[in-house]
Design brief:
334 residues; TIM Barrel; eight-stranded parallel β-barrel; 9 strands
Length: 334
């Protein structure tokens, strides 16, 4: 049966981007405001991503920020997209998310990734065990153990955390984590907003190898895409210049704060950089409501994902709200 955007959950990925010329406090205020709005517009989840040593990203203390969002909303699920588990002892994450789930029962998600979320030097500063990424599968299982009722007899326990129903997701941007999510019977979220190359292969691997678990009986997939919707194609193209400059910084290694938009005619870059940018943003949908709706529906048709996650790096807060409001209307079949 063909899935339609009106029929599947739609969620938000927020990197808590710091705007050029604005403070981090302004970022956090905008983050709370966006979460409150998307909750009213019917979005299912609001996830924040762990990154470090980036002046343009303020979601480094991810669990703290999740608590702030949960405290200022009532029903939207709030979680991590994700916690980079190799940066942390599994016991610490079990205690942090056990605390969050106790404070906001039935609303907390724990998405886990194996990447460091930063550069090599900062990775060394974060980790005392440089083999932690290799141990990712074992660390996920250790985390599951701390959440289980059966751990009550263990000499090391997660208090709070033990016995709580906190959904664990495996995140991926290549095929490795697809095998792990399938083997553990966990939901799988793919970062197609910046790593489109292996999307279809990873989804196929996950479905082919999925093993039912206590958490999940059948496969469940979510993919994150970029989207910038505005009243006209021209308005969206202007807003997207901020987003393109942000991603260009990832490609060139010159990361910076999110810059104000400019006229598309002013955004001129080297042809090789342009080709890399276009590849990286394959699954980014920019334009009028009709154009973005068509793009998102085609993406769902080609992937058959169970849930869609949207990230919208837009400098102007009012325009960002409007973009999410437009996409939220796609949930109304009328």
């Amino acid at each position: 049966m063909k899935k339609k955007i009106a029929d599947i959950p739609v969620s938000v990925l927020d990197l808590a981007l710091v705007l050029d010329g604005k403070s981090i406090a302004n970022t956090f205020s905008n983050t709370v405001d966006l979460a409150q709005h998307v909750e009213k517009w019917g979005y299912k989840r609001y996830w924040l991503a762990e990154h470090h040593n980036m002046e343009g990203v303020a979601s480094s203390a991810t669990a703290v920020l999740i608590g702030q969002i949960a405290a200022h909303t009532a029903k939207v699920r709030v979680g991590s997209g994700g916690i980079m588990l190799p940066n942390h002892a599994p016991l610490i994450i079990a205690e942090q998310f056990g605390t969050l789930e106790t404070l906001y029962p039935g609303r907390i998600d724990l998405g886990l990734g194996r990447a460091p979320g930063t550069d090599q030097l900062t990775t060394i500063a974060l980790r005392r065990d440089q083999g932690a990424a290799v141990a990712f599968p074992e660390n996920v299982k250790e985390l599951q153990k701390y959440f289980s009722d059966s751990n009550k007899t263990s000499r090391v326990r997660a208090i709070p955390g033990e016995g709580l129903d906190i959904p664990i997701w495996i995140l991926g941007s290549s095929t490795d984590s697809a095998y792990l999510a399938a083997a553990l019977g966990l939901p799988y979220a793919f970062a197609s907003h910046f790593a489109p190359a292996h999307l279809h292969q990873a989804l196929a691997i996950y479905h082919q190898h999925f093993q039912p678990s206590a958490q999940l009986k059948t496969p469940y997939t979510m993919a994150c895409v970029g989207a910038i919707a505005a009243d006209t194609d021209e308005a969206a193209a202007r807003l997207a210049t901020s987003y393109k400059r942000l991603y260009l910084g990832i490609i060139t290694g010159q990361r910076e704060k999110l810059k104000p938009p400019v006229s598309p005619e002013e955004f001129v870059i080297d042809p090789m950089q342009l080709a890399a940018l276009q590849q990286m943003t394959t699954y980014s949908f920019i334009g009028s409501p009709e154009k973005v709706h068509q793009g998102l529906q085609q993406f769902i048709d080609s992937t058959q994902v169970d849930e869609l996650m949207i990230t919208s790096p837009i400098y102007e807060h009012a325009a960002r709200l409007h973009s999410y409001e437009i996409i939220g209307r796609f949930k109304d079949p009328a």
